[in-house]
Amino acid sequence: MSLLWFIAIVILISLSGVLMPGPMFANAIYEGRKNKYAGVKIAAGHAIVEVPIIVALFFIGKFEFPSKLKSLIGIVGGIFLLYLAFTFFKNKERKIFKGIVAGILLSSLNPYFILWWLTVGFTLAIKATYFGLVGLFSLLIFHESCDFSWYGFITWLSNKGAKFQKVEKIAALLSFSLLIFFGIFFIYSGLVVHK
After folding, report:
1. CB atoms within 10 A of CB 73
2. What pTM was computed for the model?
3. Quick check: 149 and 28 in contact, CB under 8 A?
4. Buried (b) or exposed (e) across 150-162, using 16+ Cβ within 10 A?
5. In a 3-state reduction of DSSP, which class is residue 66?
6. pLDDT tens digits, residue range 87-139?
7. Helices (DSSP H) in the chain: which residue ranges?
8. Contact 14, 149 (CB under 8 A)
């Protein structure tokens, strides 16, 4: 796998999560009505929780794991992505917090966030180790850029008085498609490694 292909995978998998309508999306819309920069604060709070997890998983991933274990992590991650794809339409939870606190709480209190990083995210962290620190910084920069760009864009739109029915439907469809694709991709990759 080349570094450019790894970066492309990081961006697309990150988008599959960030585009998913949910509590952080609702928060961004709500806060954006009053502050067009609220999305940056939400993403910053999210990053406060997420960056240490990414760094820790990267260094854990540098250990020599048996290929079957790496394969199993990828397969479980793929199954989890498929599970998210078929259940996130049911997610009607709406908790409203503010700014950086919103990003911190809505990340750390979300069991899906933790499971995502223990499976899908861990697989990305293991792949990042193939490129050393360049891989780590690529994972950090491109993953976090997706969060900052999307939530910044949503709060800016909200501040301009945009209606979100169409935006939410398009984001949901794109997220669903990416989750399905990478769920199958992770499972297939894991099974190939097993052989």
Report:
1. 21
2. 0.78
3. no
4. bbbebbbbbbeee
5. coil
6. 765 655 555 677 898 888 888 877 778 888 888 889 899 999 999 999 999 99
7. 3-18, 23-32, 38-61, 67-87, 99-108, 111-118, 120-129, 132-159, 165-194
8. no
